[in-house]
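seq:
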Amino acid sequence: MKKLLSLVVVSLLWCTYSSAALLRATTEKEIIYKDIEECTKDGYWICSIEKITQLEKVFLNKGYYLSHCSYVDYKAPCSCERETSSIKKKYCEFRMKPKKIKKTRMEAADYCSNLSNRKNKEVRNEYYKSCMQDQGYR
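struct:
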């Protein structure tokens, strides 16, 4: 009877430990995937290529993987690394380039203002104007 009781107790402890580990892994995956989703918008990557690569590596190191882009009709988040041929991989890399999100006029003005303040007093106005044109505003 003591052996049976000890066996039940040990098995319950083991089940509790394994379910806690599973819960921890799920939570960890959700946290990493949340970071990845913050870098996507409307099925496109919006972060820099370096950040995307870093997030993919973290995701892969934890034992998870992103699906092939060709399987999900090239909607982010997906990975080009696992494509079957080099042609598909090049096409995927071309198609999945991060999209540049246009800044609002105020964001562009703040950005250009900060950049122009680093320049000489004589060229600040011209630098600000050219920066705003580069951002898509006249």
